[in-house]
Amino acid sequence: MTDGTGQAANVTREFDDNALLQMLFGPHHVHLERIEQALGVSLRTRGNAVAISGERPRVEEAEAVLDTLYGRLRRGETVDAADIDTAIRMGGHVDPGPPGDLVLRTRKRHIGPRSPTQATYMRAMQDRELVFGLGPAGTGKTYLAVAQAVSMMIKGEVDRLVLSRPAVEAGERLGFLPGDLREKVDPYLRPLYDALYDMLPGDQVVKRLSSGEIEVAPLAFMRGRTLANSFVILDEAQNTTPVQMKMFLTRLGEGSRMVVTGDLSQVDLPAGARSGLRDAIETLDGMEGVGFVQFTDRDVVRHGLVTKIVRAYDAREAKP
Questions:
Q1: CA-CA distance, 245 to 317, in Å (whole number)?
Q2: What's the whole-model pTM score?
Q3: Measured between alpha carbons, how far is 18 from 248 in angstroms, rounded to an integer?
Q4: What is the pLDDT of residues 250-293, one digit of tens each?
């Protein structure tokens, strides 16, 4: 194999801890196989060494990925398929771990960036009062926003979390759904609850919901309020109207942060209706204090098949 200039690269990387190598290689060398398939290189082991061969840029990348994963193991961390994919996505340049200020600490886990765009997004949420996270499903837009909110609440930097989505799928039929108001709207807010329970013990989620420290509510409940000392998230914002989006953005109060997430390829509004997310992007572009972070299918961090599905749909929609 060559790098396009007729040059093949062969590198041997040695590691000093044989016990860690078993975890680095994975059962039946499954981790090495994953790296081979992703980067198009050949990895062969002998003792405490790994021989890497292939096109020079890919060989260098594979070496960096192996060093990154080995560094995780030396720090007492684990290595699994998701960690391998993250190291590959980051080009191997994540050792000795992301900067401390990019690790979000919640009660149940510590969360760091798993793609360069996620790192940009996390930095933007720290530095800007209003951030728009844009792009396809599975890129971590909502999850990281909730993680940032929970982390800031735990540290006392905000008093409240307000998480909202438009219940556009229900439309005017909301009143015909069975149950009380909470039972009617909860299905549309479930992804936000799921993220909360992934970061906080269940009893804390229930307690904070009861006390009002955490509020999960449909967008309509935001009207007429000013949210001070809060971290406010609007999810699925592509399904707002321009009037709704303006209403939401003007809820921002003193000492608060706001994150708006959405995917303009997944608009569920009636045909011909203009998305409030698109309108806001065009209106606020270039405004000081506002950050825009665009994710792509390369940032999808869910199951590998999700990336392929996103690309397949994008390719079909791109056809004339």
A1: 27
A2: 0.72
A3: 56
A4: 999 999 999 999 999 999 888 889 999 999 999 999 999 999 99
